[in-house]
């Protein structure tokens, strides 16, 4: 699928989709969205880029192997789980929040970091699977 | 609405079982996916469908007095969907691999591990 | 005080898996970390066990949400024992894997996934929420798929297709049962379910739900008409993987069945009879299946099925004494079955074959190892001072008390079949003259290994053999433990009060 239309479009679509995925990630706590869907949208962006420009180009664009995102995401999720336990002596997975909301982003707390962890894991897993399938065919 | 969902659930389960009983590997996976979706809709159905009543406490009171939609089934379905996403991704990689290694997608020919050896 | 210590084994395995993932390529560090981490996990589990033994059931509300609304984790005596056994077997198999898993396999993430599997097992044992149990089951099966397929040989892939299909089917059936149960009661907390189901009037639908649960867990624990996936898949992966599968994976199904049928559902005659029929047929089909097989690992696979039948028989008799027997049998079986698969892997590593026809003369060439291997084999049969003997006393006594003579007959027949199978294996593998197996070209034989690796393969077998000797010679300790577990299981009010506080009045 090396059409010029798709290739041109994908260079513009990649940043747009990534931005949209971050938007979905951030609104996830109270509104539809969240880490899982955001991660899927982000991986769709890379998959689209890969199918238009070839997987090799996407890999060089990513710089790191997507599989590396899995342990990173899991670490973020793990620490967001034990944060309430360690910092405030509450139960495991209790959410703790900063008092004041930040502009644009909104309230910041451990659930947001958990979502970021999920986001990274989903991107890592999806891209690894898709790349494995498309490489071997 | 309930009747429609009940019929859909039945259809999905029926179609899933039918597909699982086919000999093709791809149809087997499709059958499992259909069954999983049937189970999800079943959870949604038995969790009582309430229309247009979100389970959110209004600002001027401390409890919900009216009937409200139960949020738990949706959380369960979401979890089940995410899990089945992972399983299906694995399944697709597996059948691709199986097709390459065994060189057939006929389940009746994948019986070397059952043979007496 | 918040009882955080009940989370430590679970969180530790998770953290260990993450750390191992960061060393994805470096399998040498992974091996060392895995063994060291499993040792620490065993200590944590031992601490949890000691706490529960001393102070009784501990509970934990995730995120601080009150009991019937949030996810509750409950560790009673049964859970604590199983977590301890999981970590024990986890350590032994981790040591065995560090020597026997070749780097080509370890490079695809064997060790991280192995610890995720252990995490899933611990989670399934400590959860007090039925949907959470489903989630842990999925964690277990996803990790086990990966462990089963790493390496990608033809028999592995073929067996993975069967294992995969049946396990996903079981999950869907389990999910369906949860859906119906939630529709009936509007709760997912097991203690709350117990209270609500006791008060419910819709007995017909509850019994049907119980049956759906039985089918779902039945596939996982490989009972009579649903076991065919097990013998066609458990012998294909490396021995370390077979050992963790054979030792623990089917037992999770049995655990779930015991939990659900003692805590949630009220047993009536129909369910008891069904369980009993299934137990008898499971014992028969497993025993006769083992009789005709030639591959050692396949024989052990069929023996798993046979002995699952014993546990279901204990559950079906519906008395505290019978439950004691079933729990004791489970404790014994986890240690011994895990060890037997390691023994099978060891034989394969030494001789390059698992076929009883080809093997032979093992005792002549390795007398000391043979004596070591004799311990799990004879424990399995239950030759009196060894571990398999004691639970059967409780089972038989319970059967005599309630006049289940047919069931007793079949339990004895099952033991006899096991004896026959093991005797046949002993003569074929250890005593018979070897026919001479052609040496495989690209295979690392046991003799070619370094001394450290040899030791790491013998050590776990020795540890587990020692544990099964302990269970045999100090049976009164384990009997005491099993009696306490059976008491807790039969009198559910302790569990319910630990979760919900005082038992709330129910409006039907």
TrEMBL record, chain A:
<dbReference type="InterPro" id="IPR007182">
    <property type="entry name" value="MnhB"/>
</dbReference>
<dbReference type="InterPro" id="IPR050622">
    <property type="entry name" value="CPA3_antiporter_subunitB"/>
</dbReference>
<feature type="transmembrane region" description="Helical">
    <location>
        <begin position="66"/>
        <end position="87"/>
    </location>
</feature>
<comment type="similarity">
    <text>Belongs to the CPA3 antiporters (TC 2.A.63) subunit B family.</text>
</comment>
<dbReference type="GO" id="GO:0005886">
    <property type="term" value="C:plasma membrane"/>
</dbReference>
<keyword id="KW-0472">Membrane</keyword>
<feature type="transmembrane region" description="Helical">
    <location>
        <begin position="107"/>
        <end position="133"/>
    </location>
</feature>
<keyword id="KW-1003">Cell membrane</keyword>
<keyword id="KW-0812">Transmembrane</keyword>
<protein>
    <submittedName>
        <fullName>Na(+)/H(+) antiporter subunit B</fullName>
    </submittedName>
</protein>
<feature type="transmembrane region" description="Helical">
    <location>
        <begin position="12"/>
        <end position="30"/>
    </location>
</feature>
<feature type="transmembrane region" description="Helical">
    <location>
        <begin position="36"/>
        <end position="54"/>
    </location>
</feature>
<dbReference type="Pfam" id="PF04039">
    <property type="entry name" value="MnhB"/>
</dbReference>
<feature type="domain" description="Na+/H+ antiporter MnhB subunit-related protein">
    <location>
        <begin position="5"/>
        <end position="128"/>
    </location>
</feature>
<keyword id="KW-1133">Transmembrane helix</keyword>
Automatic annotation (TrEMBL), chain B:
<keyword id="KW-0472">Membrane</keyword>
<comment type="similarity">
    <text>Belongs to the CPA3 antiporters (TC 2.A.63) subunit C family.</text>
</comment>
<keyword id="KW-0812">Transmembrane</keyword>
<dbReference type="GO" id="GO:0005886">
    <property type="term" value="C:plasma membrane"/>
</dbReference>
<keyword id="KW-1003">Cell membrane</keyword>
<protein>
    <submittedName>
        <fullName>Cation:proton antiporter</fullName>
    </submittedName>
</protein>
<dbReference type="InterPro" id="IPR039428">
    <property type="entry name" value="NUOK/Mnh_C1-like"/>
</dbReference>
<dbReference type="InterPro" id="IPR050601">
    <property type="entry name" value="CPA3_antiporter_subunitC"/>
</dbReference>
<feature type="transmembrane region" description="Helical">
    <location>
        <begin position="6"/>
        <end position="21"/>
    </location>
</feature>
<dbReference type="Pfam" id="PF00420">
    <property type="entry name" value="Oxidored_q2"/>
</dbReference>
<feature type="transmembrane region" description="Helical">
    <location>
        <begin position="75"/>
        <end position="95"/>
    </location>
</feature>
<feature type="transmembrane region" description="Helical">
    <location>
        <begin position="28"/>
        <end position="50"/>
    </location>
</feature>
<keyword id="KW-1133">Transmembrane helix</keyword>
From TrEMBL, chain C:
<feature type="transmembrane region" description="Helical">
    <location>
        <begin position="108"/>
        <end position="127"/>
    </location>
</feature>
<comment type="similarity">
    <text>Belongs to the CPA3 antiporters (TC 2.A.63) subunit D family.</text>
</comment>
<dbReference type="InterPro" id="IPR003918">
    <property type="entry name" value="NADH_UbQ_OxRdtase"/>
</dbReference>
<protein>
    <submittedName>
        <fullName>Cation:proton antiporter</fullName>
    </submittedName>
</protein>
<feature type="transmembrane region" description="Helical">
    <location>
        <begin position="270"/>
        <end position="292"/>
    </location>
</feature>
<feature type="transmembrane region" description="Helical">
    <location>
        <begin position="403"/>
        <end position="423"/>
    </location>
</feature>
<dbReference type="InterPro" id="IPR050586">
    <property type="entry name" value="CPA3_Na-H_Antiporter_D"/>
</dbReference>
<feature type="transmembrane region" description="Helical">
    <location>
        <begin position="239"/>
        <end position="258"/>
    </location>
</feature>
<feature type="transmembrane region" description="Helical">
    <location>
        <begin position="455"/>
        <end position="475"/>
    </location>
</feature>
<dbReference type="GO" id="GO:0008137">
    <property type="term" value="F:NADH dehydrogenase (ubiquinone) activity"/>
</dbReference>
<feature type="transmembrane region" description="Helical">
    <location>
        <begin position="33"/>
        <end position="53"/>
    </location>
</feature>
<feature type="domain" description="NADH:quinone oxidoreductase/Mrp antiporter transmembrane">
    <location>
        <begin position="129"/>
        <end position="418"/>
    </location>
</feature>
<feature type="transmembrane region" description="Helical">
    <location>
        <begin position="323"/>
        <end position="348"/>
    </location>
</feature>
<feature type="transmembrane region" description="Helical">
    <location>
        <begin position="6"/>
        <end position="24"/>
    </location>
</feature>
<feature type="transmembrane region" description="Helical">
    <location>
        <begin position="133"/>
        <end position="151"/>
    </location>
</feature>
